[in-house]
Amino acid sequence: MKYIDEYRNGRLTHDIARQIASTADPARSYHFMEFCGGHTHVISRYGLEDLLPDNVRMVHGPGCPVCVLPIGRIGAAIALAMRPEITLCTYGDLMRVRDRNGWSLLKAKAAGADIRMVYSTLDALRIAEAEPQREVVFFAIGFETTTPPTALALKTAIARKLGNFSIFCNHVVTPAAIHSILESPDVREFGTIKIDGFIGPAHVSAVIGTKPYEFFAEKFRKPVVVAGFEPLDVIQAVLMLLRQINDGRHVVENQYIRAVTRLGNVKAQAEVANFFEPRESFEWRGLGELRLSGLRLRPQYAAYDAEKRFSMVTFRAEDNPACECGSILRGVKKPADCKLFGRVCTPDTPIGSCMVSSEGACAAHWTYGRFRTKARQSDAGRAVA
Amino acid sequence: MCLAIPVEVREVLPDEMARVTLDGVSKMISTALIDDVRPGDYVILHVGYALTKINPEEAERTLALIQEAAMGNAT
After folding, report:
1. Cα three-residue angle B62-B24-B12, rounded to 5 degrees
2. Does the pLDDT at position A330 exceed 80?
């Protein structure tokens, strides 16, 4: 497939990995955070970490919107879906996330709630038009990539006077999360997390551009390389970060020039700004309340805001105390450090958020990484023997 | 969640829609977020919407840079 296959060339990936090994200074270590869950998935799926030298490590960040959605919001969505007049439309990623009572949208659907998985907001609009007697609510989550489609759905609903369509908005923004990581005591005071540079998101950046990262690169003196989602993109971004650090530079570079510009998709940004405004603060699972990190519908669209329209109540809910997802989302711990991992918490029975989505660090490690860990351990055992 | 795929525009339709194809699979998508879409363009498709057009020259340049990097020249 054009624009995919050529960026999955194994020989070139190995060649670049060799360049990384010769570029990395053996006297120091490098830690790069890939913010986006899409990159986490690619790194695990293609075994990219195994190609890197031991002193170049990847730290998984919180860029998986399913993972960072607080379970109180899931509980509120389930409670809404259980109302007889409501049809809740949701992306499939959210179906298996559990609320504080162990319920999920999947379980609620089995219990009779009218919950429908949709591929696009266009499908939710079609349902609202076809079934005017139903109150159709779209469960909107996601970063800047997914927000413009929600904005356009709202625009269309208003234009077509769809009085039975509304949005439960949980959209979040990337810069606030990066800021919270860089300002966190783990990074600034305790040194629990060492981050030398960031791999910037691919499609978030297609919308917002590379300009928003310039502030972080400047203020925190950390290089950022925006990268595409194919293995060659990611491995090239690692090499670019290494070279920046070795040269003492900390600027924003764009590896994904085929789809990302400095200013991004201005039309999409304008649509989002027309319909959404920042919330004072929004809760992130594992990170807590982050200032100006979430979006809500502007007051003039209150009629389409499901939270106001149906007086939705969100309870703050704690995660399972044994679950380490909070630390994993901040890059403090790795999936295998959690005692629930692979025992009671698997993709079939996810306890924590990082196991729910295929882009979560735990799910990616379960699917691709644990076998390599076992292989490394048995290799080490043989070497000792 | 933010994964998106490059697809080829086959036909530009009314109401800012287009018919695209990926490996022989045909799909109707919205092009309301981008301007000046033409058949033959490749766009990044995410949840039913084209987010951006792929710049073919930059795609070639990326591959050239990757080739150079693989041979040990600075990117």
Report:
1. 80
2. no
